[in-house]
Amino acid sequence: MKDEHNDVELNRSLGLWSALSLVVGTIIGVGIFVRQAAVLDDAGSTTGALLAWLAGGIITLTAGLTIAEIATQMPETGGLYVYMEKLYGKLWGFLSGWMQIIIYGPAMIASLGAYLSLLLIDFFHIPQAWTIPIALISIILVGILNLFSNRYGAGFAIITTICKLLPVAALVIFGLFFGDQSALGHSISQVHQSAGGFGVAILATLFAFDGWILVANLGGEIKNPSKRLPQAIVLGILGVLVIYLLVTFGVFRSIPAQKIHDLGTGAIPYMANKDFGTIGGKLLSIGIIISIVGCMNGKIMTFPRIMYAMAKDKELPFQHVLAYLSPTTRTPIWCTVTTLVIAGIMIVFFDADRLSELCIFTVYCFYVMAFFGPTILRRRNPGIKRAFSIPLYPLTPIIAILGSLFVIVSEIMSDLQGVLLSFIFVIIGIPVFYYEMRKQKDD
């Protein structure tokens, strides 16, 4: 992808391991560590909870397989933004990108920064007054790393992914081999009656699997993207699915179901202290901190690429600045800085968690549209040779579509006000789009 101002290109230097680490690292944040009790409560039993994690993983895998076929035909920087534009036209592409760069991406980065700050304050016994400054410092430091060559961000992703998997492996091993509980068949019926049920349990796991699609934003920086991008998406989701199932099984082997319910988000820290002592609890906290930092790194690395792709297409205000690539690092430095500034404003003035939740509805609306993509492309280009084809087509994309529709309907039923607000975020982008299009014509 050429930059018309300085002829600098994005650095196509990321291999399979870098892409795979970004998929795994971006998915595994804090969800698997804090959602065990919530999923168990909604499912009503340990068997139901395991099936909910499996169902969430299968839905996510079908989504990944579906996007993988599209990615092989559109291996460009921008991911979902590019897919929507080429499938449905410029307006739909713009709106999907607009929502991600203005609200969703910065809000996710901000919420990770805020949660990381709380953990650091608790771990080092820092005064609460430092909550916001530490959150800002954390996103700035990770952001600075991503102002350098993409090799540094990718290398950091590999390191943090390995580090976060070490405590996960310890939890799994001790749970499987030293746990004295039966992991299947234990129910908490008194909770199940007032909880959301199996469907809500699946919904909770889907949010813990989210983030896998962000590696597609780096299509212009991955070596042989038509081959490596599908491999990274599919292998990454499969790996996370196995990890989530093993961790959940290990927790259920170590702690009685009723105890998990009583502990809530403290179930895994309790397990770490029980199995490894106080030092084990501290090491787990370090593992979770590293996990969040790695997840934040993946998002800071990938979301600015959407902004860059949109600026290259002359669809954003200040496009000449945002489309700039550093001749030295070959990274979109002003897009990264802009993303961090928006995230910082959210940390200081807004509830970033709530903002990211508001965008879930619209994200999944765009997902559903994208999942129809393989069918559209197969009809548009009959007989074309594809580098990757969806297995079990059309069943696989149908499952992905139904899973996303389930999230959409659930959001409408549980948070109608939030759904309407998320529509407002998207609609604000329409006049921006037409203004920039008119500027293009005048030029």
TrEMBL record:
<dbReference type="Pfam" id="PF13520">
    <property type="entry name" value="AA_permease_2"/>
</dbReference>
<keyword id="KW-0812">Transmembrane</keyword>
<keyword id="KW-1133">Transmembrane helix</keyword>
<feature type="transmembrane region" description="Helical">
    <location>
        <begin position="389"/>
        <end position="410"/>
    </location>
</feature>
<keyword id="KW-0472">Membrane</keyword>
<protein>
    <submittedName>
        <fullName>Amino acid transport protein</fullName>
    </submittedName>
</protein>
<feature type="transmembrane region" description="Helical">
    <location>
        <begin position="130"/>
        <end position="148"/>
    </location>
</feature>
<feature type="transmembrane region" description="Helical">
    <location>
        <begin position="198"/>
        <end position="220"/>
    </location>
</feature>
<feature type="transmembrane region" description="Helical">
    <location>
        <begin position="155"/>
        <end position="178"/>
    </location>
</feature>
<dbReference type="InterPro" id="IPR050598">
    <property type="entry name" value="AminoAcid_Transporter"/>
</dbReference>
<dbReference type="InterPro" id="IPR002293">
    <property type="entry name" value="AA/rel_permease1"/>
</dbReference>
<feature type="transmembrane region" description="Helical">
    <location>
        <begin position="321"/>
        <end position="349"/>
    </location>
</feature>
<feature type="transmembrane region" description="Helical">
    <location>
        <begin position="279"/>
        <end position="300"/>
    </location>
</feature>
<feature type="transmembrane region" description="Helical">
    <location>
        <begin position="50"/>
        <end position="71"/>
    </location>
</feature>
<feature type="transmembrane region" description="Helical">
    <location>
        <begin position="355"/>
        <end position="377"/>
    </location>
</feature>
<feature type="transmembrane region" description="Helical">
    <location>
        <begin position="416"/>
        <end position="435"/>
    </location>
</feature>
<dbReference type="GO" id="GO:0016020">
    <property type="term" value="C:membrane"/>
</dbReference>
<dbReference type="GO" id="GO:0015179">
    <property type="term" value="F:L-amino acid transmembrane transporter activity"/>
</dbReference>
<feature type="transmembrane region" description="Helical">
    <location>
        <begin position="91"/>
        <end position="118"/>
    </location>
</feature>
<feature type="transmembrane region" description="Helical">
    <location>
        <begin position="14"/>
        <end position="38"/>
    </location>
</feature>
<feature type="transmembrane region" description="Helical">
    <location>
        <begin position="232"/>
        <end position="252"/>
    </location>
</feature>
